[in-house]
Amino acid sequence: MLKRTTLGRLLPRRFAVSALTAISVVLSALQPSHSQQKGVPVVRDAEIEALVREYARPILKAAGLSNSGIEIVLVNDQSFNAFVAGRRIFINTGTLLQAETPNEVIGVLAHEAGHIAGGHQQRLRDQMARAQTMAIVASLLGIGATVAGAASNTRGLAQAGTGLALGGTEAARRGLLAYQRTEETTADRSALVYLERTGQSPAGMLTTFKRFQSALALTGSRIDPYRISHPTPRDRIANLEVLARKSPYFDKTDSPALQQRHDMMRAKIAVYTQGQSAAQRLFKQERSSVAAKYGDAQASFLFGNPKAALGKVDALLKDQPKNPYFHELRGDALMKANRPAEAAKAYATAVRLDPSKSGILLMSQGQALLAMGTKESAAQAAAQLRKGLDIDPENAVAYRYLAQAYGQLGEIAQAELATADGYYYSGEYQQAKIMAARAQQKFKRGSPGWVRAQDIINFKTGKKRK
Ligand SMILES: [Zn+2]
């Protein structure tokens, strides 16, 4: 199941992606403004995360980033965008939905890996600090000229001063943007190298940039080429195309099995973000495909009745009995039908079959066990939730269920500590500290629970977490 979550879970609360710090593959002019000001709306899903990580793994290896702890974060945003912040690659669900092949997404990931491997972010920050200094100096010079002009009572000179002030800031900004454009070209070149090293086609990258060009055409406005932080798509495509066509893998396509998983992911995102019939629209040419049927089952689960969804999932399972996400959807539908014991079994099967060992599936299993309402199932729920949290320790929602499980078991100190952790990973530090202090009084001094509570109490809210 696709789960929305707050950014606090993953990043410090005040983290905001500004137009300048976001190194993105799309023109900043096209970015929705909300993502520039507020936090990033993160979305979690075992199936999508596993697939995108599979796309990224060989690329990160080729980029020498296998052991760099690079995380991939899904952003709940319908626009086509991806960007890098720290050691995280953020990719919009809109990118995954619009990309028709795995190769297109892999091209985007290769470009973003190019930014990380090139250390572009740190240098971008340095460059920004310098640009700001330049801008301040230029403004002061401009003001000085304005004052001088006003003092000599010469209108022309005063105007010249104002012009100079604006010109100075503009020059600094253009200098910075020109620098960013160079980094984009570098990232493109790196991406080509990683794709060749992994024996994959750069054609998807080209398709992606062509899509940008048409997106730009759709805005219908002329954009000052100096104002955009990326090379104008036409230049970028032309340069890239010449190099890309030299790749021996240019005509290589994704395997049918991978394409099918990609289409299933797109069907799921379509239904979750664009409504009941979105997957049917997306796959109207291939109504009998597994992806179309999967989208239909997801739509029944989300918008229809769970019984209909169960029938559709069971039909899918006849074809692919070992698909963990079919079992997951079966669990989701059973939960909605208020059949938690069967749901717990379906999730247990999903967990067993999941090669990516996702903490999310364990969390769903724990939630179902908890809903069964017996002491025995609460103990099992706590165990599975803990396992899930070992894998995915920042999953705020899982702590809330863990707290309920401990509550049912009468373990109040553990319940309060789990509640504190839930607040902590949601970025609600004040509440977290209050609850941690309450839990700590019930733990033996120096015990693991006591130490964890102390960590939360000691956490400096102003300090950036890693
Ligand atoms: Zn870029």
Topology:
Layout: E1 3-5, E2 23-24, H1 34-37, E3 42-44, H2 46-62, E4 71-75, E5 82-85, E6 88-92, H3 93-98, H4 102-117, H5 120-151, H6 155-197, H7 203-219, H8 233-244, H9 256-274, H10 278-282, H11 290-303, H12 306-319, H13 324-336, H14 340-353, H15 359-372, H16 375-391, H17 396-408, H18 412-425, H19 429-440, H20 448-458
Parallel strand pairs: 4-6
Antiparallel strand pairs: 1-3, 2-5, 3-4, 5-6
Bound molecules: zinc ion.
Structural features:
466 residues, 6 strands, globular, binds zinc ion
Could you describe the 3D structure shown?
There is one protein chain. With 466 residues, this protein is mainly α. Among the domains are: 1-130 and 184-254, no CATH class; 420-466, no CATH class. Helix content is 66%, strand content 5%. It is built from 20 helices and 6 strands. It has a 6-stranded mixed β-sheet. β5 (82-85) and β6 form a beta hairpin. α13 (324-336) runs antiparallel to α14. The protein is globular and about 65 Å long. Residues 6-38, 135-167 and 217-227 have low confidence and may be disordered. Zinc ion binds at residues 23-25, 111, 115, 184, 187.
From N to C, what is the helix and strand string? EEHEHEEEHHHHHHHHHHHHHHHHHH
- Mean pLDDT comes to 81
The count of helical stretches stands at: 20
- Main-sheet strand order equals 1-3-4-6-5-2
Short characterization:
This protein is mainly alpha-helical and 466 residues long. Helices cover 66% and strands 5% of the residues.
